[in-house]
Design brief:
The chain is of the alpha/beta class. It has 2 domains: 46 residues; 137 residues, Endonuclease, Chain A, CATH 3.30.870. The chain contains 6 helices and 7 strands, in the order H-E-H-H-E-H-E-H-E-E-E-E-H. The chain starts with 8 loop residues before the first helix and ends in a 5-residue tail after the last helix.
């Protein structure tokens, strides 16, 4: 057993002074770090979220997010849609265009040049859809969905990799690229 004794009152006062110094040091450190925290917080408003998905379900999930943000007469843009897509994609997009047109959402689609005319003819048959070929022969390993404050980057394959970025600055940048390509493209006939 240990004997416990009460500390001398002067030691308690020293202990309190020591803790006050520690608190003062913490305040100074916080004051030094505060500008960094403020910069970090400002930067967080620029890129609010980045999410990764994989597979066809991931691609569909991100596309479905358009219905959470877009209202009647608003639109989304697809840039660089690949010529080859799995049959399941075509079935999904056809059902989705029926839903999209019922909800009054519009879309502009830029397909790679090798895409069959039949696919563009089909997409243009839905109300509010304007599908065209890319104006130049760019073939990228990815395609992009742009709307509101959101950009989706998809790398197509049997098991696509999909990234969703929620950032107004990034979305505005991709919209500017899309608009330039759209201006150069020709209406599908």
């Amino acid at each position: 057993m240990t004997n416990s004794q009460a500390a001398e009152p002067s030691r308690i006062k020293d202990y309190i002074k020591e803790k006050e110094k520690e608190i003062d040091n913490l305040k100074k450190e916080f004051d030094n770090l505060l500008p960094r925290f403020e910069i970090y917080q400002r930067d967080q408003t620029k890129v609010q979220k980045v999410k990764f998905y994989q597979g066809i379900k991931g691609l569909i999930t991100i596309h479905e997010h358009t219905y959470l943000k877009l209202k009647k007469n608003e639109e989304y843009y697809y840039l660089g849609i690949p010529k080859d897509q799995l049959e399941i994609h075509h079935h999904y997009w056809q059902r989705d265009h029926i839903r999209r047109s019922k909800e009054g959402i519009k879309c502009k689609l830029l397909f790679n040049k090798e895409t069959s005319r039949e696919i563009l003819r089909n997409r243009n048959s839905y109300k509010g859809c304007n599908a065209r070929y890319m104006p130049i022969g760019i073939k990228t390993p990815a395609f992009f969905l742009i709307y509101k404050d959101t950009v989706m980057i998809a790398v197509p394959s049997d098991n696509p990799v999909v990234i969703e970025i929620i950032s107004q600055d990034i979305a505005d940048s991709f919209k500017a690229y899309f608009q330039e390509f759209w201006k150069m493209s020709k209406k599908f006939k």
